[in-house]
Design a protein that fits this description.
single chain; 28 residues; mainly alpha; rod-shaped
Length: 28
């Protein structure tokens, strides 16, 4: 269960970074 929570947290962090990178790419 703990591993699943960590995985979900990692996915959330990666999604946030990808979203931010995409946001800046769109702005540029």
């Amino acid at each position: 269960m703990q591993t699943l929570l960590q995985l979900a947290h990692w996915i959330d962090t990666i999604n946030e970074r990808i979203g931010r990178a995409t946001y800046w790419l769109v702005l540029l």
